[in-house]
Amino acid sequence: MIQRIQTLYLLLSGLLMLIPLFLPVLAVVVPDLGAVYRMGSAGMESPDGSRSILYSTWALFGLNILIPILSFVGIFLYNKRGLQMRVTMFNLILKAGFYALLAFYVLQFQGSLDAVSEISIRPWVAVPLVCMILDYLAHRGIAIDDRTIRYMDRLR
């Protein structure tokens, strides 16, 4: 199980997706008010530093919990390569949905502000993109293993 490179890809993908769970992925800067609202998975934090949540993003939080769980479940499906490939592809689609949901929440929050605001992107927002690449590499490795085993069965 661990000797397969796709297992390492899935493990790294799952561990990396824990980063946006705890760190803010972007900030909305309102120059008129002099306020910086930080956005993490749990929601938009107040600018006064009290870390209280002003705008809740529970769907993003749930998605950010589900993605690492599916990565770790995919690791243990090594005997069922077809299901493992489907779980990996579904996880890749969920990561694209993470970006779509993040954009939705930012646009919705910006619309609720009366002042003009700008978005300051943190480096952690690129983590799901890196994980999408790792998921693709894992899917490709699983498909190669599947083809190899089918070829070996045909030779017997």
Question: Roughly how many Å is the radius of gyration?
Answer: 19 Å
> Which whole number gives the mean pLDDT?
86
Main sheet properties: 3 strands, antiparallel
- The number of helical runs is 5
Measured as a percent range, the helix fraction is 55-70%
Silhouette: elongated
Beta-strand content estimate: 5-15%
Structural class estimated from helices and strands: alpha+beta
| Tally of DSSP β-strands | 5
The strand line-up of the biggest sheet is: 2-1-5
**Topology as H/E string?**
HHEEEEHHEH
Low-confidence segments: none
Give the termini separation: 24 Å
Structure description:
The chain is an alpha+beta fold. The protein contains five helices and five strands. It is 61% helix and 13% strand. The strands form two sheets. The chain has a three-stranded antiparallel β-sheet with strand order 2-1-5, with no helix packed on it. Strands 3-4 form a two-stranded antiparallel ribbon. A hairpin with a 4-residue loop joins strand 1 (26-30) and strand 2 (35-39). Helix 1 (5-16) packs antiparallel against helix 5 and helix 3 (58-75) packs antiparallel against helix 4 (81-112).
